[in-house]
Specification:
Layout: H1 21-34, E1 42-46, H2 50-59, E2 64-68, H3 79-84, H4 89-102, E3 110-114, H5 120-128, E4 133-134, H6 138-144, H7 152-157, H8 182-185, H9 190-214, H10 233-239, E5 242-243, E6 248-249
Parallel strand pairs: 1-2, 2-3, 3-4
Antiparallel strand pairs: 5-6
């Protein structure tokens, strides 16, 4: 943002100084030194080769591994990448947990999952399958007023419409979120936007708590795969949980510990 006019701001698809796993170890140590060992180090990755990538990050010394499934939104990527790269969040969380269990670091290295988390039910399912926490991106932006049908004429100037803007990269956000233009920034009413985001997270927290209680759990972090049933054969195979009505698990991710069913049929 501080580059002079006419100078390209390059945004490579990977860290240029990372050539392999050993370089990740070095980078994590550099970050620890830069922060005087006072803050946890997060390694965030898109969900691709999740099982191997999570193991590499955990072994490299990350305190927290963040995995973003393909349902995650972005305002600046080509449609071809949005629609055809990455793997779904459901598969990602299962592989990530299996990876940490495989190297004995599950419960020591925290796992955060994202990508299409829009409700307390989505979050509760992620926690049940092994995530320590989730984070929200697009849902939070919507709470801020992203894509709201106001200032419609400015959407039209960008050649787009409310609810499907996808022009964050232009710096001309009609509702004042992804922009540096003072006139546009002024459109974002900070206090009202803050209240909406607070309401969103309070509502999601309440939903997760209600679902945990309905499963007989006193703590949302006590949710586990045994609390889930798959509605489709595909979901059972991906998540490693029983297909509803059968108590039978079909498939399962690498190293996944399938639920123990006492009276399995």
């Amino acid at each position: 943002r501080d580059l002079p006019p006419g100078v390209d701001q390059r945004s490579p698809c990977r860290h240029p100084d990372w050539m392999g796993p050993d370089d990740m170890v070095i980078k994590i140590e550099e970050l620890r030194e830069a922060t005087d060992w006072q803050v946890p180090i997060f390694v965030k990755m898109g969900a691709t080769r999740v099982f191997d990538d999570v193991k590499l990050a955990a072994k490299a010394g990350a305190d927290v591994v963040v995995v973003d499934g393909m349902e995650g939104g972005t305002g600046a990527s080509p449609d071809i990448l949005l629609d055809h790269t990455g793997i779904p969040t459901l598969a990602a969380v299962c592989e990530a947990r299996a990876a940490l269990e495989d190297i004995g670091l599950y419960g020591q290295v925290q796992l955060i999952i994202a990508g299409g988390i829009r409700s307390g039910a989505d979050a509760a399912k992620a926690l049940s399958l092994g995530a320590d926490a989730v984070y929200l991106g697009t849902a939070t932006l919507i709470a801020l007023n992203c894509n709201k049908p106001i200032y419609v004429e400015d959407y039209h100037k960008l050649g787009t419409e409310p609810y499907a803007c996808h022009h964050c990269h232009t710096g001309r956000c009609p509702v004042g979120i992804t922009t540096q233009d003072p006139e546009l920034v002024a459109r974002l009413e900070i206090n009202a936007a803050t209240d909406r985001v607070i309401n969103l997270f309070n509502a999601l927290t309440a939903e997760i708590q209600m679902l945990a209680r309905s499963c007989g759990k006193a703590n949302v972090h006590d949710l586990e795969p045994e609390d889930l049933r798959a509605l489709t054969l595909e979901a059972s195979m991906i998540a490693g949980v029983p297909l509803v009505g059968t108590n039978k698990v079909f498939g399962g991710g690498p190293g996944w510990k399938k639920p123990k069913i006492e009276d399995g049929r």
